[in-house]
Amino acid sequence: MEPGNITSRACNVITEKLDSIPSEQPKCMIYRVHSHLRKVNDDAYEPEIIAIGPYHRDKTNLKMLEEHKFSYLNLLLQRKNENIEMYASTIGRLQHEARKCYAEPIELGPSEFTEMLVIDGCFIIELVLKYNMVHLRGTNDPIFQMEWIMNSLQRDLMLFENQIPFFILVRLFDLIHEPVPDQHNGQLMVNLFFSFFKNLYPGKVSSENLNPNRDTIKHLLDLIHSHWFPTPSNLLRFGEETSHIRKSGRLIKTATGLRKANVKFRRNEGSSVTTMFDVGYNNGTILMAPMTIEYRTECFLRNLIAFEQYLQDSQTTFVTDYVKLLDCLIDSSGDVEVLSRFGIIDNWLGDYEVVANMVNKLTDSVASPGKHFIYGKLVEIVNSHCKILGNRWMEMLRRNYWNSPWATISIIAAAFLLLLSIAQTVSSTLQVV
Question: Which residues cross the membrane (predicted)?
């Protein structure tokens, strides 16, 4: 083939591909977790018993609840004395917009894709309604008879890859649930979903953080994330100036290292604490809200961190920032024991070493704190405290000589004898004079 023909053909291929690119990049909101995060713990991003959306559809190990989805839909239609046409036609008009929400091409035709959105969306809404309204539950519904199924469902429905767009759930909710007098449907929907996921949170969540504007929520994981924002007034923020914080090594000493530098820890759960992320400092004491660690905690935090990796606003990576801080404080089982002793970690896993390993791996393949690191000021203050030689001496004295009642008595007795000796010397000197 002549060089000119090769060039012309190559130009045509490139032009066709350029023409196929949309003028505006679609606003994707549902991604697959990238391999760098997934390789650390693949299971944390995989559903256990149910597939929602297209990414995990048709996996053989997730067939358990597929029939239950249709059972819930059938009960819904019977209760409302309706047919499926209204739901399918409503969502069918939105399927094109919903398809744009996925970062990867969806190999489903319009009818199949619409079917999936209707079945999955109706199941989610019915499940949440039954969870909050006991009278809607069937007498032989295994989901509400076996606690492990509900625990797995709560876990699976928040996974980053296991989502459908929230605006689909909004439209279905408005069709399924009749409005309650004097209560806006948007606020009610948000409250019902928050109640469903509440026991997944490992720490305190403030009801003041509930955002009734359901139109801004991307999906269920975003709903969970948006309700957990820390209160700016409760953080020692360092804003733009945190860019000088070192990007390699440890930001702050471990919990045991800080104790050696005479830094104390205190459980903080007063009325001023609104979320788990409210970490404070007062006169040599780090104040931290309690955190419960159970078997779903790693999965919960990993998916929120993955979600934050795809956010364009670096100031909303508060989960990642907190886990980075926790990873610095915890390096061994001894550090977990220190934080547990002060009531900051409520360890449901039992083994301190298991918790330490979990925390240390959470930040693997996650970018270092940026200039908006919300604990930048705290790190600066605590590190300054640790540099004061007197604090290290006081902790050494406490650890080596005040660590038992007998040692304390010995120090007091020695000090008393020293004072008597000094007094006797002064008295003898005065008598000579």
Answer: 401-423
